[in-house]
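Residues and backbone
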Amino acid sequence: MKMKATLFKDIKVSPVIKFLTYSDILMMSGWGLISPILSVFITDQIPGGTVEIAGLASTIYFLVKSFLQIPVARYIDKRKGENDDFNIMILGSLVITLSAFMYMFVTTPGQLYLVQVLYGIGGALSYPSWLALFTRHVDKNEEGLEWSLYYTTTDLGAALAAGLGGFMASSFGYNSVFLSVGIASLCGTLFLYGIRKYLWKR
């Protein structure tokens, strides 16, 4: 108990870091529901769906995100102030939320690929701006702690969600999972508005 008290003594986390972390707990926990079931959903529910299609869908997401996020990062780095970071982060989070809801209407591999493209665009917009804001507002001499708190809480949320996703899909159907992911992503996006008053303007 004494060691625990020492570890957490005088911890004061920036409000921006708190809201960014709360948001990602919801976002990543939500998307953690999908991770263990997406391949099964593709092979079970999409006519002609195969493991190869599931792999290609994942590849499409990472390719789109990878090619777009560097231009997005360059854009926000060249602009003064944090309004552009905030607005692009919100836009990206909304696109990610929309892609979660759109899984509910996927019936063909082509539609799945389009959703993955949309998901990749959302990630390319959201992640660079989120990282820029987190990096600027992390507290001096607390960098390791605050990054560790972030990863610990988001990883725990994703771990719990991974088990829950399979249960929900088998008990209530795939659409219940996608609906839950969309709602969690939307709530995570709303949490981001908590940092608005702490940002510095042009």
About this structure: Confidence is low (pLDDT under 50) at residues 1-8.
